[in-house]
Amino acid sequence: MRPLRPATAHRTDPVRIRFAIVLIAGVLALTGAGATFGTEIAAVDDAGTRLTLAQPARRIVSLSPHLTELVYAAGAGDRLVGVSRYSDHPAAARALPVLSDAFTLNLEAIRAARPDLVLVWQSGTAQRSRDALKAMAQREGFAVWEGESRDVEGIASTLERIGRLSGTSATANAEAAAQRAAWAALVARWQGAAPVRVFYQVWDAPLMTFNREHGVSRALAACGAVNGFGQLASLTPTVSREAVLAFDPQLILSGSDDPQRALAAWRALPRISAVRHGQLKGVPGDVLTRMGPRFVQAASQLCERVDAARATAK
């Protein structure tokens, strides 16, 4: 008589083995493709809307230069299939189709790009255009993200949320942490510095500046600068030359491509401290106002300008 097999032993079933191999391979393939197995990919945008995606975004459209930069910094630049005019950084963005400008969204071109995620600048895009984009998104089945960053925390948070939606969180979160650390270092460097009265000229005719809510004004405050028009209600208020004379800035700044031309009219007013001390200066306006990943670097240059004016006032 042959000995009995132990109760726990059994013969190997080739069919079962093949089935198990196929099942495991399928699971691994889905996992590698970013499957969530019932868990939505979700993020809340700056308009308070909760966006959900079935899988990480693979075709992204950015409708503002600063959002284009943030997509690249978040590690999702290879997903971009369309951008806005003036999306010139990094260099790779210049080769992408232009689907909007400061005044118009080309809805037909956006639809033809077959996006699964469209990023739009909230305050920089007319409400009517945003409404039309959202209506098309409902018909075509893509998500619309509305962004509005006015400080470094907003930049960092946007990076993290873009990373979540595009499946590049490792890169995005690392960049967000670097942004926060660089800003903290800048604030610490200039904390306690003597105040400097600064007028930032956004435009010369009409004469415009920023209130305290704008990112540029937040950078100025970190540098120890005083914005005499920070209390005004509008984000970019129009002011009079007489009001600037009364404020008597020690530094007048312009983000124009040609700051010497933009600031030329002030040279006829030597009673202003900034004019007497030669403190009519240009700064990288495009980078400062974009509120993208290069903002802190540009803010550092801004602080050097403020500190130079501080030295002339001693």
Quick structural summary:
The protein has 314 residues and is an alpha/beta fold. 42% of the residues lie in helices and 16% in strands.
> Radius of gyration, rounded?
27 Å
Low-confidence stretches: 1-38
The CATH superfamily of the largest domain is Nitrogenase molybdenum iron protein domain
Judged by helices, strands and strand pairing, the structural class is: alpha/beta
CATH architecture of the largest domain: 3-Layer(aba) Sandwich
Question: Helix count?
Answer: 12
What percentage of amino acids are in beta strands? Answer: 15-25%
Ends distance: 109 Å
Largest beta-sheet characterization: 5 strands, parallel
Mean pLDDT: 89
User: What top-tier CATH class of the largest domain fits best?
Assistant: Alpha Beta
Number of domains: 2
Number of strands: 13
Overall, the morphology is elongated
Provide an overview of this structure:
It is a single chain. The protein is of the alpha/beta class. It folds into 2 domains: 41-181, Nitrogenase molybdenum iron protein domain (Rossmann fold, 3-Layer(aba) Sandwich), CATH 3.40.50; 192-312, Rossmann fold (3-Layer(aba) Sandwich), CATH 3.40.50. The chain is built from 12 helices and 13 strands. The protein has helices at 14-32, 65-73, 107-112, 127-140, 152-166, 169-190, 215-222, 241-247, 259-262, 273-276, 285-290, 295-312, and strands at residues 41-44, 50-53, 60-62, 80-84, 98-100, 117-121, 143-147, 196-201, 203-204, 207-208, 225-227, 251-254, 280-282. The protein has a 5-stranded parallel beta sheet, with helices on both faces. The chain has a 4-stranded parallel beta sheet with strand order 11-8-12-13. Strand 1 and strand 2 (50-53) form a beta hairpin. Helix 6 packs parallel to helix 12 (295-312). Mean pLDDT is 89; it is low at 1-38.
